[in-house]
Amino acid sequence: MGADRSYAYGAAAGLLGDLLLGDPRRMHPVAAFGRAAGRAERALWHDHRGWGALHTLLCAGGVTALGAVAARAVRPSFTASAALTAAAAWAVVGGTSLAREARAVGHALERGDLTAARARLPHLCGRDPQSLDADAIARAVVESVAENTSDAVVGALVWGAVAGVPGLLGFRAVNTLDAMVGHKSPRLRRFGWAAARLDDVAGWPGARLTAVLAVLAGDDPRGALRAWRADAHRHPSPNAGPVEASFAGALGVRLGGTLSYGGRVEHRPVLNGTGRPVRVADIGRAVRLSRRVGLLALGVTVAGRLIGKGRGR
Length: 313
Hints:
By secondary structure, the chain is mainly alpha-helical. The protein is built from 11 helices and 2 strands; from the N terminus they run H-H-H-H-H-H-H-H-H-H-E-E-H. The mean pLDDT is 93.
């Protein structure tokens, strides 16, 4: 039980650190991992799934193994174990940075500064900002807040509860690799296949928990549940679908529709079609819902680890 309590204290401290401090401005561990993964990609790239799988194994597997070694080394000390967990959770959870970037875009839209909003949007998502008007930017921000609540907060907490520090680090490594090489550009369609599929698998439980918590924490639980059940399966992403649909219903807005990534236009189905169009004020509402979901996720995952490990003894 001592190891489980050290995880609980460490995870809570890590999330508190993110709330108070946000991401470090310099020498962010995730950024360092991204640079290393980028160098590995340049060395290993071939237009072949096997080479991409090797890249994913080396990068994500190496980080997970490093986390396992570090966790084993500090296991005899309750304080050191809790401190390591706190550091890992703080490094991989990105809720405060997500909220800060979303609000920055929202403030620019409130001022009527569309140029500033377009310049800031790439900090949140990979859409082509120059093709978007103010309403489309606001919708993109709300969708990004929803999806990244799962990717940057809840998913990491789920895998941390399952596997401790290796789970925290491994999940963020997989998610980062998917963002780097998992998209369907001609160069990465085959090489990034393994990272994208692994991210789908790793993100599955966190996305469903995020959707459940959005139903519970939102302003319209029935609307959130209805949108999730009716529309989630229509989204091209198996994990973004439940999250964005439940957020759309909880906020009473419509999400989805036409968007552009890297010059490629996609026509996605509308989520919660009975909702109203997204307004700038909905960005703040989405951020507050994301905060509530993150805090609930901490409680659920820590309780699940304590109960599950307790029964296993």
